[in-house]
């Protein structure tokens, strides 16, 4: 891989070590793009599967581990535990992102898989409240915290590697696989959930069936470790007295803040439309679980396809910012009518079609936006920067979204509650993006 094939920072200077970073992967020649994408994206998809399948089974988990007399009480406690995993994301983003900038992307990505496995084990083997009391609830909590810490560092390391490894050409398409892999996660989780709800009686689901998706998620251990062990490193650590995270906050704090706000619309769409919609369809629209989980399949496929299209567009457009802003404007205007329609005319085909529309409208601009942020960050702080931007944004606006919307639904009984939250997040993202100046690393 030639030096011209990797990004040079458009902000600030590059140290001599940074200038030689491209040679980290040169020893064995240019690594296969297929292997690179598989290693970064398949591992991320499997990790996101573990992290998000909890959302699809939140009603059942709430009943088994967080009993309550209130109809919404168990669900509130379950989604609060789902959200608590996000609290660890910023810490994981800081520690693992810093590690990725110091020791390399490959080492960090191997670490995240091990941590995710530990978290999944805690959830898969947690005894229910009826037999173990609060101990089972605490095991669920511990598993969520470990999963959150792991994912906090996964995104920055893997996305940075996808950007750096193949040169400028096709950079947007490679990065788009990070988001596309999350669509695969949603699809896998929804298919698993739908199959279990359709095949097993309620008693079997409650006694052992709900554990199967988490046991399936343990496949990340052999698969993820194997494919990532054969990656070539893309980043040689720079010699600096201060840590990467310190330099990031000192020199690029404004960009980090704008990046956090810019991610809010995509985050809200992901966690409300892709992952919370099955719960919304069951609780608010009173649809059967097996049918409601189809929404996860449809939005997962939509997210996968639209992300790859967006990556190709990001590579071909001379300016990406208009596409990002246009997608946000459309989603802010459309989300209200979408939820009004599905709450007043609750048919499965309509819900699926409009959920796909919202997913597509936001995510056509998400990959170009992340590529803009990646190119604005120097290589020596890139993994830390993306980890902090993504994990903090997801923690504040994603991890809390299901709890806030569930609380609003319980208090107001207004089926448009998700739309109000998503509109607010969209406006925040729009304001942040308008203040960003697009720069391209060469």
UniProtKB/TrEMBL annotation:
<feature type="transmembrane region" description="Helical">
    <location>
        <begin position="386"/>
        <end position="410"/>
    </location>
</feature>
<feature type="transmembrane region" description="Helical">
    <location>
        <begin position="290"/>
        <end position="311"/>
    </location>
</feature>
<feature type="transmembrane region" description="Helical">
    <location>
        <begin position="212"/>
        <end position="229"/>
    </location>
</feature>
<dbReference type="GO" id="GO:0005886">
    <property type="term" value="C:plasma membrane"/>
</dbReference>
<feature type="region of interest" description="Disordered">
    <location>
        <begin position="1"/>
        <end position="26"/>
    </location>
</feature>
<dbReference type="InterPro" id="IPR051084">
    <property type="entry name" value="H+-coupled_symporters"/>
</dbReference>
<keyword id="KW-0769">Symport</keyword>
<feature type="transmembrane region" description="Helical">
    <location>
        <begin position="132"/>
        <end position="158"/>
    </location>
</feature>
<feature type="transmembrane region" description="Helical">
    <location>
        <begin position="348"/>
        <end position="374"/>
    </location>
</feature>
<feature type="transmembrane region" description="Helical">
    <location>
        <begin position="323"/>
        <end position="342"/>
    </location>
</feature>
<keyword id="KW-0813">Transport</keyword>
<feature type="transmembrane region" description="Helical">
    <location>
        <begin position="72"/>
        <end position="96"/>
    </location>
</feature>
<feature type="transmembrane region" description="Helical">
    <location>
        <begin position="179"/>
        <end position="200"/>
    </location>
</feature>
<feature type="transmembrane region" description="Helical">
    <location>
        <begin position="108"/>
        <end position="126"/>
    </location>
</feature>
<feature type="compositionally biased region" description="Low complexity">
    <location>
        <begin position="1"/>
        <end position="25"/>
    </location>
</feature>
<dbReference type="Pfam" id="PF07690">
    <property type="entry name" value="MFS_1"/>
</dbReference>
<keyword id="KW-1133">Transmembrane helix</keyword>
<keyword id="KW-0812">Transmembrane</keyword>
<keyword id="KW-1003">Cell membrane</keyword>
<dbReference type="InterPro" id="IPR036259">
    <property type="entry name" value="MFS_trans_sf"/>
</dbReference>
<keyword id="KW-0472">Membrane</keyword>
<protein>
    <submittedName>
        <fullName>MFS transporter</fullName>
    </submittedName>
</protein>
<feature type="transmembrane region" description="Helical">
    <location>
        <begin position="416"/>
        <end position="436"/>
    </location>
</feature>
<dbReference type="GO" id="GO:0015293">
    <property type="term" value="F:symporter activity"/>
</dbReference>
<dbReference type="InterPro" id="IPR011701">
    <property type="entry name" value="MFS"/>
</dbReference>
<dbReference type="InterPro" id="IPR020846">
    <property type="entry name" value="MFS_dom"/>
</dbReference>
<feature type="domain" description="Major facilitator superfamily (MFS) profile">
    <location>
        <begin position="36"/>
        <end position="442"/>
    </location>
</feature>
<feature type="transmembrane region" description="Helical">
    <location>
        <begin position="255"/>
        <end position="278"/>
    </location>
</feature>
């Amino acid at each position: 891989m030639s030096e011209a094939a990797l990004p040079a920072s458009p902000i600030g200077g590059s140290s001599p070590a940074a200038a030689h970073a491209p040679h980290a992967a040169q020893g064995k020649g240019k690594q296969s793009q297929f292997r690179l994408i598989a290693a970064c994206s398949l591992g991320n998809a499997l990790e996101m599967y573990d992290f998000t399948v909890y959302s699809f089974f939140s009603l059942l988990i709430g009943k088994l581990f967080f009993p309550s007399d209130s109809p919404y009480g168990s669900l509130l406690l379950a989604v609060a535990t789902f959200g608590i995993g996000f609290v660890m994301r910023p810490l994981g983003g800081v520690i693992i992102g810093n590690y990725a900038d110091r020791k390399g992307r490959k080492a960090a990505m191997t670490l995240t898989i091990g941590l995710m496995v530990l978290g999944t084990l805690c959830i898969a083997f947690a005894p229910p409240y009826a037999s173990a009391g609060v101990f089972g609830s605490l095991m669920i909590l511990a598993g969520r915290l470990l999963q959150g810490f792991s994912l906090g560092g996964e995104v920055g390391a893997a996305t940075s590697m996808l950007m750096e490894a193949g040169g400028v050409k096709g950079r947007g398409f490679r990065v788009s696989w990070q988001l596309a892999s999350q669509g695969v996660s949603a699809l896998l989780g929804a298919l698993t959930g739908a199959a279990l709800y359709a095949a097993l009686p309620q008693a079997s689901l409650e006694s052992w069936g709900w554990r199967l998706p988490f046991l399936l998620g343990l496949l990340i251990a052999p698969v993820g470790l194997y494919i990532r062990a054969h990656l070539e490193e893309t980043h040689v650590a720079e010699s600096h007295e201060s840590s990467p995270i310190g330099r990031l906050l000192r020199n690029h704090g404004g960009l980090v803040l704008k990046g956090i706000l810019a991610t809010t619309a995509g985050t809200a769409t992901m966690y409300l439309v892709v992952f919370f919609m099955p719960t919304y369809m069951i609780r608010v629209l009173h649809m059967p679980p097996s049918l409601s989980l189809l929404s996860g399949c449809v939005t997962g496929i939509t997210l996968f396809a639209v992300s790859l299209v967006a990556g190709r567009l990001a590579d071909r457009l001379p300016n990406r910012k208009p596409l990002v802003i246009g997608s946000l404007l459309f989603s802010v205007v459309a989300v209200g009518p979408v939820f009004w329609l599905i709450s007043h005319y609750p048919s499965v085909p309509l819900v699926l079609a409009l959920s796909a529309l919202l997913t597509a409208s936001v995510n056509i601009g998400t990959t170009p936006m992340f590529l803009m942020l990646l190119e604005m960050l120097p290589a020596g702080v890139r993994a830390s920067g993306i980890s902090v931007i993504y994990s903090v944004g997801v923690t504040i606006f994603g991890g809390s979204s299901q709890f806030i919307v569930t609380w609003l639904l319980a208090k107001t009984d207004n089926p448009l509650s998700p739309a109000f939250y998503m509109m607010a997040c969209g406006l925040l993202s729009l304001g942040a993006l308008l203040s960003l100046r697009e720069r391209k690393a060469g």
